[in-house]
What we know:
The protein is of the alpha/beta class. The chain has helices spanning 36-43, 65-69, 88-91, 133-136, 139-151, 167-177, 190-198, 224-233, 254-259, 272-280, 299-306; strands at 2-7, 10-15, 25-34, 50-51, 55-62, 75-78, 81-82, 102-103, 116-119, 124-126, 159-163, 182-186, 202-203, 214-219, 234-242, 263-266, 290-295, 313-317. Strands 3, 5, 6, 9, 10, 17 and 18 form a seven-stranded mixed β-sheet that branches. It has a six-stranded parallel β-sheet with strand order 13-12-11-14-15-16, sandwiched between helices. The longest helix is centred in the middle third of the chain and has 13 residues, at 139-151. One zinc ion is lined by residues 35, 37, 54-55, 140-141.
Amino acid sequence: MQALWLEDHKISLRDIPQPRQANEALIKVRKAGVCSTDLELVKGYYPYTGVIGHEFVGDVVEAEGTDGRSWIGQRVVGEINVTCNQCEQCLSGRPTHCEHRTVLGIINRDGTFAEYTTLPIANLHRVPASVPDEMAVFTEPLAAALEIQDQIQVKPTDRVLLVGAGRLGQLIAQTLALTGCDLRVVARHAHQQELLKARGIRIISEEDIKPWRWDIVIEATGSPSGFSLARKAIRPRGTMVLKSTYKGEMSVNFSSIVVDEINLIGSRCGPFEPALRLMELKQVDPTVLIADEFKLSDALKAFERAAEAGVLKVLVES
Length: 318
Ligand SMILES: [Zn+2]
Ligand SMILES: [Zn+2]
């Protein structure tokens, strides 16, 4: 089958054998989305060799066992962390932190820019019929956005600042808007601002951000300048949620964070079922992020397009 292979900081289309994993479902990929993590993998920020891609929607074509067989023919999305169910993290209810995990298209597990992929049945979620493929493919990043509300309470009376309105930032903005909080978003590109305005989400310019005023600040730029803006905005005893990874090491004045008694929350993968539900109920619409779509045979072009400044989601059709 055709697949997008990453090796030595280079991606190329390869013909590789169809995957087969004992006790896992074989999934025919319909669509996969290019995410910032994919672009960073190509730049070599994490060591990985294999098929990349982790945001997808597809159909189960093979599965074993009585339970497994009931999934054949189902349209599904899949959680990306495959866990051991035996380590201390797994047994303590922190499966996304499994000490032996593999991660779809990111750590020791071939991903989804391919005709087929595999995942354990336990990772799969059925997609409601009313959620089209181009929406379902956003389930993973939308779940990551919802992880914030799984981690901290966002009160309707909270003043919340979101720094960054890129791929993940847009989804965070849409989900935070549902809480009724007093939300403002720092968005750099005109198109990002338009998407927010169209949903009635208010934007704020950097100059208008008063320091020490915000109860919750979400940092979704992954840049040192975004972090320092977020740090400046948060009030004493406020909560800063870090929603992006940072390239290499970052220099931070931790004494001021101690003195201001800031809560720092790292935030990664989130719950799939609420993400699917919000899309089914049309309370969020991630499809407004779609900038382009390419065939798998043009996946290299898809990556070039996704790397352009201000481009949000690029999809690849298998
Ligand atoms: Zn991603
Ligand atoms: Zn484990």
